């Protein structure tokens, strides 16, 4: 029983590390992509219209949601769910 719990904890930790790895890979890929697109933007029109900022915006949104998933930055976490369920059950009992 205890060994099974340790294996499950290990598996959860391994999945969490994989999510964090994917986030950092995405971050470095985004930095590389933005650098290339910014260089092309400068070469084409020397910042007359900085259209590469649209790429920054899109990749920023993507990284934001990947960060939320990887680092569990949610206001609706499992603990919040459990508290809310308990609160509603207590309210219903009264």
Give the helix/strand layout.
Layout: H1 2-45, H2 52-71, H3 78-93
Helix pairs in contact: 1-2
Question: How would you portray this structure in words?
Answer:
It is a single chain. The chain has 94 residues and is mostly helical. The chain has one domain (2-93). The protein contains three helices and no strands. The protein has helices at residues 2-45, 52-71, 78-93. Helix 1 (2-45) packs antiparallel against helix 2. The mean pLDDT is 91.
Task: Give me the Rg, rounded.
Answer: 22 Å
Largest sheet: none
Strand/helix succession: HHH
Q: Could you say how many structural domains there are in total?
A: 1
- Structural class, from helix and strand content? mainly alpha
Number of helices: 3
Which residues form runs of ≥5 with pLDDT under 50? none
- The gross shape turns out to be elongated
Mean pLDDT: 91
- For the secondary structure, the number of strands is 0
- Measure the end-to-end span: 38 Å
Fraction of residues in helix: over 70%
Report the portion of residues in β strands.
Answer: under 5%
């Amino acid at each position: 029983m205890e060994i099974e719990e340790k294996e499950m904890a290990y598996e959860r930790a391994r999945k969490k590390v994989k999510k964090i790895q994917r986030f950092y890979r995405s971050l470095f890929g985004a930095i590389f992509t933005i650098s290339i697109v910014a260089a092309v933007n400068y070469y084409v029109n020397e910042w007359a219209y900085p259209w590469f900022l649209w790429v920054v915006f899109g990749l920023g949104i993507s990284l934001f949601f990947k960060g939320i998933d990887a680092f569990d930055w949610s206001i609706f976490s499992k603990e919040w769910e459990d508290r809310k369920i308990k609160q509603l059950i207590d309210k219903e009992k009264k």
